[in-house]
Write a structure and sequence with these properties.
This protein is α/β, with parallel strands linked by helices and 449 residues long. It folds into two domains: 1-19 and 359-449, Arc Repressor Mutant, subunit A, CATH 1.10.10; 21-319, pyruvate-formate lyase- activating enzyme (Alpha-Beta Horseshoe). It is built from 16 helices and 19 strands. Strand 14 and strand 15 (330-334) form a beta hairpin. Helix 8 (214-226) runs parallel beside helix 9 (258-274).
Length: 449
Protein backbone atom coordinates (compact mmCIF):
# COMPACT_ATOMS: atom_id res chain seq x y z
CA UNK A 1 0.00 0.00 0.00
CA UNK A 2 1.40 3.38 -0.95
CA UNK A 3 1.76 6.11 1.65
CA UNK A 4 -0.88 8.18 -0.16
CA UNK A 5 -3.41 5.35 -0.14
CA UNK A 6 -2.67 4.45 3.47
CA UNK A 7 -3.53 7.98 4.57
CA UNK A 8 -7.15 7.45 3.54
CA UNK A 9 -7.66 3.66 3.72
CA UNK A 10 -8.62 3.53 7.41
CA UNK A 11 -11.39 6.11 7.11
CA UNK A 12 -14.79 4.77 8.16
CA UNK A 13 -17.34 5.56 5.44
CA UNK A 14 -20.63 4.09 4.17
CA UNK A 15 -20.80 1.47 1.41
CA UNK A 16 -23.21 3.66 -0.58
CA UNK A 17 -25.82 1.18 -1.73
CA UNK A 18 -28.31 4.04 -1.51
CA UNK A 19 -28.40 7.77 -0.94
CA UNK A 20 -29.34 8.80 1.66
CA UNK A 21 -27.84 5.69 3.27
CA UNK A 22 -29.93 3.44 5.51
CA UNK A 23 -28.90 5.03 8.87
CA UNK A 24 -30.64 8.20 7.69
CA UNK A 25 -34.01 6.58 7.00
CA UNK A 26 -36.64 8.05 9.33
CA UNK A 27 -38.36 5.91 11.95
CA UNK A 28 -41.43 8.15 11.89
CA UNK A 29 -42.03 7.23 8.24
CA UNK A 30 -45.70 6.29 7.65
CA UNK A 31 -46.62 3.06 5.84
CA UNK A 32 -49.38 5.05 4.13
CA UNK A 33 -46.70 7.11 2.38
CA UNK A 34 -45.17 3.95 0.94
CA UNK A 35 -48.65 2.80 -0.09
CA UNK A 36 -49.05 6.00 -2.07
CA UNK A 37 -45.66 5.48 -3.71
CA UNK A 38 -46.73 1.99 -4.80
CA UNK A 39 -49.97 3.36 -6.27
CA UNK A 40 -47.96 5.88 -8.30
CA UNK A 41 -45.69 3.24 -9.85
CA UNK A 42 -45.35 3.64 -13.61
CA UNK A 43 -47.36 0.70 -15.05
CA UNK A 44 -45.18 0.50 -18.17
CA UNK A 45 -41.72 0.62 -16.55
CA UNK A 46 -40.08 -2.67 -15.50
CA UNK A 47 -39.62 -3.09 -11.76
CA UNK A 48 -37.30 -5.26 -9.69
CA UNK A 49 -38.29 -7.57 -6.85
CA UNK A 50 -36.27 -8.61 -3.81
CA UNK A 51 -37.32 -11.29 -1.31
CA UNK A 52 -35.48 -11.71 1.98
CA UNK A 53 -35.41 -15.01 3.87
CA UNK A 54 -33.52 -14.47 7.14
CA UNK A 55 -33.17 -18.10 8.23
CA UNK A 56 -29.94 -20.10 8.29
CA UNK A 57 -29.11 -23.60 9.54
CA UNK A 58 -25.88 -22.42 11.18
CA UNK A 59 -24.50 -19.11 12.44
CA UNK A 60 -21.42 -17.74 10.64
CA UNK A 61 -19.59 -15.52 13.10
CA UNK A 62 -18.42 -13.03 10.44
CA UNK A 63 -21.94 -12.37 9.17
CA UNK A 64 -23.47 -8.92 9.53
CA UNK A 65 -26.78 -9.81 7.86
CA UNK A 66 -30.21 -9.98 9.48
CA UNK A 67 -30.51 -13.74 10.06
CA UNK A 68 -32.25 -16.17 12.39
CA UNK A 69 -31.01 -19.61 13.36
CA UNK A 70 -33.63 -22.22 12.41
CA UNK A 71 -33.30 -25.70 13.85
CA UNK A 72 -36.94 -26.54 12.95
CA UNK A 73 -38.89 -25.89 9.77
CA UNK A 74 -42.07 -24.58 11.43
CA UNK A 75 -40.84 -20.96 11.77
CA UNK A 76 -39.70 -20.99 8.14
CA UNK A 77 -43.07 -22.31 6.98
CA UNK A 78 -44.86 -19.57 8.95
CA UNK A 79 -42.55 -16.97 7.41
CA UNK A 80 -43.31 -18.28 3.91
CA UNK A 81 -47.04 -17.92 4.61
CA UNK A 82 -46.54 -14.31 5.65
CA UNK A 83 -44.51 -13.65 2.49
CA UNK A 84 -47.50 -14.82 0.44
CA UNK A 85 -49.68 -12.31 2.24
CA UNK A 86 -47.18 -9.46 1.90
CA UNK A 87 -46.93 -10.02 -1.86
CA UNK A 88 -50.72 -9.97 -2.15
CA UNK A 89 -50.95 -6.85 0.03
CA UNK A 90 -48.50 -4.91 -2.14
CA UNK A 91 -50.08 -6.19 -5.34
CA UNK A 92 -53.42 -4.66 -4.30
CA UNK A 93 -51.74 -1.23 -4.38
CA UNK A 94 -49.67 -1.66 -7.54
CA UNK A 95 -50.81 -1.36 -11.16
CA UNK A 96 -51.84 -4.77 -12.48
CA UNK A 97 -49.41 -6.78 -14.54
CA UNK A 98 -46.25 -4.85 -13.77
CA UNK A 99 -43.30 -6.09 -15.86
CA UNK A 100 -40.34 -7.50 -13.90
CA UNK A 101 -36.77 -7.27 -15.19
CA UNK A 102 -34.89 -8.56 -12.14
CA UNK A 103 -35.76 -10.85 -9.24
CA UNK A 104 -33.37 -11.58 -6.36
CA UNK A 105 -33.76 -13.88 -3.38
CA UNK A 106 -31.39 -13.09 -0.50
CA UNK A 107 -30.91 -13.78 3.15
CA UNK A 108 -30.04 -15.46 5.39
CA UNK A 109 -30.39 -18.47 3.16
CA UNK A 110 -33.34 -18.53 0.76
CA UNK A 111 -32.76 -22.23 0.13
CA UNK A 112 -33.69 -22.81 3.77
CA UNK A 113 -37.21 -22.84 2.28
CA UNK A 114 -38.50 -26.21 1.16
CA UNK A 115 -38.57 -26.73 -2.63
CA UNK A 116 -42.38 -26.70 -2.52
CA UNK A 117 -42.55 -23.45 -0.57
CA UNK A 118 -40.08 -21.78 -2.93
CA UNK A 119 -42.14 -22.95 -5.91
CA UNK A 120 -45.39 -21.74 -4.34
CA UNK A 121 -43.94 -18.29 -3.69
CA UNK A 122 -42.62 -18.06 -7.24
CA UNK A 123 -46.10 -18.96 -8.47
CA UNK A 124 -47.57 -16.24 -6.25
CA UNK A 125 -45.19 -13.70 -7.81
CA UNK A 126 -46.04 -14.81 -11.34
CA UNK A 127 -49.73 -14.42 -10.50
CA UNK A 128 -49.26 -10.72 -9.75
CA UNK A 129 -46.35 -9.72 -12.00
CA UNK A 130 -45.32 -10.37 -15.59
CA UNK A 131 -41.74 -11.58 -15.86
CA UNK A 132 -40.02 -10.39 -19.01
CA UNK A 133 -38.50 -13.16 -21.18
CA UNK A 134 -35.01 -11.74 -20.52
CA UNK A 135 -35.54 -11.24 -16.77
CA UNK A 136 -32.66 -12.23 -14.50
CA UNK A 137 -33.77 -14.48 -11.63
CA UNK A 138 -31.11 -14.95 -8.97
CA UNK A 139 -30.95 -16.78 -5.66
CA UNK A 140 -28.39 -17.04 -2.87
CA UNK A 141 -27.56 -20.52 -1.62
CA UNK A 142 -25.49 -22.26 1.03
CA UNK A 143 -23.46 -25.21 -0.35
CA UNK A 144 -23.56 -26.84 3.10
CA UNK A 145 -27.33 -27.31 2.97
CA UNK A 146 -28.26 -27.20 -0.74
CA UNK A 147 -29.92 -30.51 -1.64
CA UNK A 148 -30.03 -32.13 -5.07
CA UNK A 149 -33.83 -31.77 -5.01
CA UNK A 150 -33.61 -28.03 -4.35
CA UNK A 151 -31.00 -27.56 -7.08
CA UNK A 152 -33.28 -29.26 -9.60
CA UNK A 153 -36.27 -27.20 -8.48
CA UNK A 154 -34.30 -23.93 -8.77
CA UNK A 155 -33.50 -24.82 -12.36
CA UNK A 156 -37.07 -25.85 -13.14
CA UNK A 157 -38.39 -22.54 -11.75
CA UNK A 158 -36.35 -20.61 -14.30
CA UNK A 159 -33.60 -19.16 -12.14
CA UNK A 160 -30.73 -17.91 -14.26
CA UNK A 161 -28.11 -17.11 -11.60
CA UNK A 162 -27.08 -18.47 -8.21
CA UNK A 163 -24.69 -17.02 -5.62
CA UNK A 164 -22.53 -18.83 -3.08
CA UNK A 165 -20.75 -17.43 -0.05
CA UNK A 166 -17.39 -19.14 -0.46
CA UNK A 167 -15.45 -16.59 1.62
CA UNK A 168 -12.25 -18.63 2.21
CA UNK A 169 -11.27 -22.31 1.83
CA UNK A 170 -8.49 -22.43 4.42
CA UNK A 171 -9.60 -24.82 7.23
CA UNK A 172 -8.25 -22.64 10.03
CA UNK A 173 -10.04 -19.55 8.74
CA UNK A 174 -13.25 -21.54 8.22
CA UNK A 175 -13.04 -22.78 11.79
CA UNK A 176 -12.57 -19.21 13.04
CA UNK A 177 -15.68 -17.96 11.21
CA UNK A 178 -17.74 -21.13 11.85
CA UNK A 179 -18.28 -21.91 8.16
CA UNK A 180 -16.89 -25.32 7.28
CA UNK A 181 -17.29 -26.06 3.56
CA UNK A 182 -14.48 -27.93 1.78
CA UNK A 183 -13.89 -27.20 -1.92
CA UNK A 184 -15.48 -30.47 -3.09
CA UNK A 185 -18.70 -29.53 -1.27
CA UNK A 186 -18.88 -26.21 -3.12
CA UNK A 187 -17.99 -27.87 -6.43
CA UNK A 188 -20.85 -30.36 -6.03
CA UNK A 189 -23.31 -27.53 -5.36
CA UNK A 190 -22.08 -25.59 -8.40
CA UNK A 191 -22.23 -28.66 -10.65
CA UNK A 192 -25.72 -29.50 -9.38
CA UNK A 193 -27.10 -26.06 -10.25
CA UNK A 194 -25.37 -25.89 -13.62
CA UNK A 195 -26.68 -29.36 -14.39
CA UNK A 196 -30.19 -28.11 -13.54
CA UNK A 197 -29.88 -25.28 -16.06
CA UNK A 198 -28.74 -22.38 -13.87
CA UNK A 199 -26.20 -20.98 -16.30
CA UNK A 200 -24.56 -18.23 -14.24
CA UNK A 201 -22.75 -18.64 -10.90
CA UNK A 202 -21.49 -15.97 -8.48
CA UNK A 203 -18.97 -16.43 -5.66
CA UNK A 204 -18.41 -14.16 -2.68
CA UNK A 205 -14.84 -14.10 -1.34
CA UNK A 206 -13.72 -12.15 1.72
CA UNK A 207 -10.34 -10.75 2.70
CA UNK A 208 -9.38 -9.50 6.14
CA UNK A 209 -10.76 -12.55 7.99
CA UNK A 210 -9.26 -13.92 11.23
CA UNK A 211 -6.07 -15.95 10.67
CA UNK A 212 -6.26 -15.20 6.96
CA UNK A 213 -3.00 -14.53 5.14
CA UNK A 214 -2.14 -13.50 1.62
CA UNK A 215 -1.11 -17.10 0.95
CA UNK A 216 -4.38 -18.65 2.15
CA UNK A 217 -6.42 -16.14 0.18
CA UNK A 218 -4.52 -16.74 -3.06
CA UNK A 219 -4.86 -20.50 -2.60
CA UNK A 220 -8.62 -20.00 -2.17
CA UNK A 221 -8.73 -17.89 -5.33
CA UNK A 222 -6.97 -20.56 -7.35
CA UNK A 223 -9.38 -23.20 -6.09
CA UNK A 224 -12.44 -21.02 -6.64
CA UNK A 225 -11.35 -19.87 -10.12
CA UNK A 226 -11.02 -23.50 -11.21
CA UNK A 227 -14.81 -23.73 -10.80
CA UNK A 228 -15.07 -20.75 -13.20
CA UNK A 229 -17.71 -18.60 -11.49
CA UNK A 230 -19.00 -15.86 -13.79
CA UNK A 231 -18.74 -13.18 -11.11
CA UNK A 232 -16.65 -12.82 -7.99
CA UNK A 233 -17.39 -10.30 -5.27
CA UNK A 234 -14.19 -9.62 -3.34
CA UNK A 235 -15.34 -8.03 -0.11
CA UNK A 236 -13.31 -6.71 2.78
CA UNK A 237 -14.52 -8.19 6.06
CA UNK A 238 -16.41 -5.47 7.93
CA UNK A 239 -15.79 -5.98 11.63
CA UNK A 240 -18.74 -4.20 13.25
CA UNK A 241 -19.40 -6.07 16.52
CA UNK A 242 -21.37 -3.11 17.91
CA UNK A 243 -23.97 -3.85 15.20
CA UNK A 244 -23.52 -7.60 14.50
CA UNK A 245 -23.19 -9.09 17.97
CA UNK A 246 -22.19 -12.53 16.65
CA UNK A 247 -18.94 -10.96 15.48
CA UNK A 248 -17.93 -10.72 19.13
CA UNK A 249 -17.07 -14.42 18.79
CA UNK A 250 -14.17 -13.43 16.54
CA UNK A 251 -10.78 -12.92 18.14
CA UNK A 252 -9.85 -9.38 17.13
CA UNK A 253 -6.18 -10.18 17.70
CA UNK A 254 -6.40 -12.70 14.85
CA UNK A 255 -7.58 -10.09 12.33
CA UNK A 256 -4.99 -8.82 9.82
CA UNK A 257 -4.04 -5.17 10.25
CA UNK A 258 -4.81 -2.44 7.73
CA UNK A 259 -1.62 -2.94 5.74
CA UNK A 260 -2.15 -6.70 5.49
CA UNK A 261 -5.80 -6.20 4.48
CA UNK A 262 -4.83 -3.81 1.72
CA UNK A 263 -2.14 -6.19 0.46
CA UNK A 264 -4.61 -9.09 0.44
CA UNK A 265 -7.04 -6.99 -1.60
CA UNK A 266 -4.38 -5.89 -4.08
CA UNK A 267 -2.88 -9.33 -4.65
CA UNK A 268 -6.28 -11.03 -4.92
CA UNK A 269 -7.42 -8.58 -7.59
CA UNK A 270 -4.14 -8.91 -9.48
CA UNK A 271 -4.41 -12.70 -9.59
CA UNK A 272 -8.06 -12.68 -10.65
CA UNK A 273 -7.35 -10.20 -13.43
CA UNK A 274 -4.53 -12.46 -14.56
CA UNK A 275 -7.04 -15.31 -14.70
CA UNK A 276 -9.22 -13.37 -17.12
CA UNK A 277 -11.63 -11.55 -14.81
CA UNK A 278 -12.51 -7.91 -15.50
CA UNK A 279 -12.41 -5.57 -12.48
CA UNK A 280 -15.73 -3.84 -11.84
CA UNK A 281 -16.33 -0.95 -9.49
CA UNK A 282 -14.90 -1.20 -6.02
CA UNK A 283 -15.01 -4.90 -5.25
CA UNK A 284 -16.38 -7.03 -8.10
CA UNK A 285 -14.81 -8.96 -10.96
CA UNK A 286 -16.52 -10.79 -13.81
CA UNK A 287 -15.72 -12.79 -16.89
CA UNK A 288 -15.78 -10.56 -19.98
CA UNK A 289 -18.98 -12.11 -21.37
CA UNK A 290 -20.94 -11.63 -18.14
CA UNK A 291 -23.68 -9.00 -18.25
CA UNK A 292 -22.06 -7.04 -15.40
CA UNK A 293 -18.75 -6.80 -17.26
CA UNK A 294 -20.61 -5.69 -20.38
CA UNK A 295 -22.51 -3.03 -18.39
CA UNK A 296 -19.28 -1.78 -16.81
CA UNK A 297 -17.67 -1.35 -20.21
CA UNK A 298 -20.77 0.45 -21.50
CA UNK A 299 -21.02 2.79 -18.50
CA UNK A 300 -24.47 1.42 -17.55
CA UNK A 301 -23.54 -0.26 -14.28
CA UNK A 302 -25.71 0.56 -11.26
CA UNK A 303 -25.65 0.06 -7.52
CA UNK A 304 -28.48 -0.89 -5.19
CA UNK A 305 -29.01 -2.63 -1.88
CA UNK A 306 -27.56 -5.88 -3.26
CA UNK A 307 -24.40 -4.06 -4.41
CA UNK A 308 -23.34 -3.71 -8.04
CA UNK A 309 -26.04 -4.63 -10.52
CA UNK A 310 -27.12 -4.42 -14.14
CA UNK A 311 -30.62 -3.55 -12.95
CA UNK A 312 -31.79 -0.24 -14.42
CA UNK A 313 -35.24 -0.15 -12.78
CA UNK A 314 -36.21 2.92 -10.76
CA UNK A 315 -38.50 0.81 -8.57
CA UNK A 316 -37.29 -2.07 -6.38
CA UNK A 317 -40.00 -3.71 -4.29
CA UNK A 318 -38.69 -5.51 -1.22
CA UNK A 319 -40.54 -8.33 0.53
CA UNK A 320 -39.64 -9.95 3.83
CA UNK A 321 -38.32 -8.86 7.19
CA UNK A 322 -35.70 -6.09 6.90
CA UNK A 323 -36.03 -5.95 3.08
CA UNK A 324 -35.19 -2.57 1.59
CA UNK A 325 -37.01 -1.09 -1.37
CA UNK A 326 -36.84 2.05 -3.41
CA UNK A 327 -38.96 4.07 -5.79
CA UNK A 328 -38.48 7.35 -7.66
CA UNK A 329 -39.93 8.96 -4.54
CA UNK A 330 -37.72 7.49 -1.83
CA UNK A 331 -36.43 4.47 0.09
CA UNK A 332 -38.13 2.17 2.59
CA UNK A 333 -37.09 -0.65 4.90
CA UNK A 334 -39.31 -3.33 6.38
CA UNK A 335 -39.52 -4.25 10.06
CA UNK A 336 -36.48 -6.37 10.95
CA UNK A 337 -37.98 -8.71 13.54
CA UNK A 338 -39.91 -11.48 11.69
CA UNK A 339 -42.67 -11.72 14.30
CA UNK A 340 -43.46 -8.00 14.26
CA UNK A 341 -43.16 -7.97 10.46
CA UNK A 342 -45.70 -10.81 10.16
CA UNK A 343 -48.10 -9.21 12.65
CA UNK A 344 -48.21 -5.99 10.63
CA UNK A 345 -49.06 -7.96 7.50
CA UNK A 346 -51.75 -9.80 9.44
CA UNK A 347 -53.34 -6.42 10.16
CA UNK A 348 -53.20 -5.56 6.42
CA UNK A 349 -50.54 -2.89 7.06
CA UNK A 350 -47.45 -2.59 4.90
CA UNK A 351 -44.70 -3.80 7.30
CA UNK A 352 -42.54 -0.69 6.96
CA UNK A 353 -40.20 0.25 9.80
CA UNK A 354 -38.62 3.35 8.32
CA UNK A 355 -38.08 5.26 5.13
CA UNK A 356 -37.08 8.55 3.58
CA UNK A 357 -38.44 10.69 0.77
CA UNK A 358 -35.73 11.93 -1.56
CA UNK A 359 -35.39 15.52 -2.69
CA UNK A 360 -34.07 16.85 -5.97
CA UNK A 361 -30.74 17.50 -4.23
CA UNK A 362 -30.67 13.94 -2.88
CA UNK A 363 -31.27 12.62 -6.39
CA UNK A 364 -28.45 14.75 -7.76
CA UNK A 365 -25.95 13.80 -5.07
CA UNK A 366 -27.05 10.16 -5.25
CA UNK A 367 -26.37 10.06 -8.98
CA UNK A 368 -22.90 11.57 -8.51
CA UNK A 369 -22.12 9.05 -5.77
CA UNK A 370 -23.37 6.16 -7.89
CA UNK A 371 -21.20 7.14 -10.87
CA UNK A 372 -18.14 7.42 -8.61
CA UNK A 373 -18.85 3.99 -7.15
CA UNK A 374 -19.60 2.39 -10.53
CA UNK A 375 -17.36 4.19 -13.03
CA UNK A 376 -14.62 5.77 -10.94
CA UNK A 377 -15.31 9.06 -12.68
CA UNK A 378 -18.00 11.71 -12.91
CA UNK A 379 -18.61 15.22 -14.21
CA UNK A 380 -20.77 16.85 -11.57
CA UNK A 381 -22.04 19.59 -13.90
CA UNK A 382 -22.92 17.05 -16.58
CA UNK A 383 -25.00 15.13 -14.04
CA UNK A 384 -26.71 18.33 -12.94
CA UNK A 385 -27.56 19.26 -16.53
CA UNK A 386 -28.96 15.80 -17.23
CA UNK A 387 -31.23 16.04 -14.18
CA UNK A 388 -32.33 19.60 -14.93
CA UNK A 389 -30.45 21.10 -11.97
CA UNK A 390 -28.25 24.19 -11.79
CA UNK A 391 -24.58 23.67 -12.53
CA UNK A 392 -21.72 24.84 -10.32
CA UNK A 393 -23.39 23.37 -7.27
CA UNK A 394 -20.50 21.60 -5.53
CA UNK A 395 -17.45 23.85 -5.67
CA UNK A 396 -16.52 23.25 -2.03
CA UNK A 397 -16.71 19.47 -2.42
CA UNK A 398 -14.53 19.54 -5.52
CA UNK A 399 -11.94 21.69 -3.75
CA UNK A 400 -11.90 19.15 -0.91
CA UNK A 401 -10.72 16.55 -3.41
CA UNK A 402 -7.72 18.59 -4.49
CA UNK A 403 -5.66 17.02 -1.71
CA UNK A 404 -6.31 13.55 -3.12
CA UNK A 405 -5.44 14.89 -6.56
CA UNK A 406 -2.13 16.11 -5.18
CA UNK A 407 -1.52 12.63 -3.78
CA UNK A 408 -2.01 11.10 -7.23
CA UNK A 409 -5.27 9.35 -6.32
CA UNK A 410 -7.52 11.24 -8.72
CA UNK A 411 -7.42 13.83 -11.48
CA UNK A 412 -9.70 16.87 -11.57
CA UNK A 413 -10.41 19.07 -14.56
CA UNK A 414 -13.02 21.64 -13.65
CA UNK A 415 -16.08 19.71 -12.51
CA UNK A 416 -14.85 16.39 -13.89
CA UNK A 417 -13.01 13.96 -11.61
CA UNK A 418 -11.40 10.64 -12.51
CA UNK A 419 -9.95 8.27 -9.94
CA UNK A 420 -6.60 6.71 -10.78
CA UNK A 421 -6.15 2.93 -10.68
CA UNK A 422 -4.92 3.18 -7.09
CA UNK A 423 -7.48 5.81 -6.19
CA UNK A 424 -10.40 3.58 -7.20
CA UNK A 425 -9.81 1.61 -4.02
CA UNK A 426 -10.97 4.79 -2.27
CA UNK A 427 -14.25 5.18 -4.16
CA UNK A 428 -16.18 5.22 -0.89
CA UNK A 429 -13.95 7.99 0.51
CA UNK A 430 -14.45 10.13 -2.61
CA UNK A 431 -18.20 9.46 -2.62
CA UNK A 432 -18.41 10.54 1.04
CA UNK A 433 -17.28 14.05 0.08
CA UNK A 434 -20.68 14.54 -1.61
CA UNK A 435 -22.69 13.10 1.32
CA UNK A 436 -24.32 15.97 3.22
CA UNK A 437 -25.86 13.57 5.78
CA UNK A 438 -22.63 11.95 6.91
CA UNK A 439 -21.28 14.63 9.23
CA UNK A 440 -24.57 14.93 11.11
CA UNK A 441 -25.07 11.17 11.47
CA UNK A 442 -24.12 9.03 14.45
CA UNK A 443 -23.84 5.73 12.58
CA UNK A 444 -20.55 3.83 12.67
CA UNK A 445 -19.14 2.44 9.43
CA UNK A 446 -16.48 0.00 8.28
CA UNK A 447 -13.07 1.12 7.03
CA UNK A 448 -12.65 2.07 3.38
CA UNK A 449 -10.12 -0.64 2.43
Amino acid sequence: MSTSLAAYASRAVPRYTSYPTAPHFREDFAPSTYAEWLRRTDPAAPVSLYLHVPFCRAVCSYCGCNMKLASRYAPIAAYAAALHDEIALAACLLPRGLPVGHLAWGGGTPTALSPDDLAALMERLRRHFIFRPDAELSIESDPRTLTAEMAQRIGALGFTRASFGVQEFDPRVQQAINRIQPPDMVARAVDGLRGAGVSRINFDLIYGLPHQTEETLLTTIATAAAMRPDRIALFGYAHVPWMAKRQRLIDEAALPDGTARARQSERAAEVLIGLGYQPIGLDHLALPDDSMAIAARAGTLHRNFQGYTTDTADTLIGFGATAIGRSPFGHVQNIAEPGAWARAIGRFILPVAKGVAISAEDRLRGEVIERIMCDGEVDTDAVASRLGCATGWCGDELKTLDGMAGDGLLMRTGTAITLTAEGRKLSRVVAAVFDTYLAAGRARHSVAV
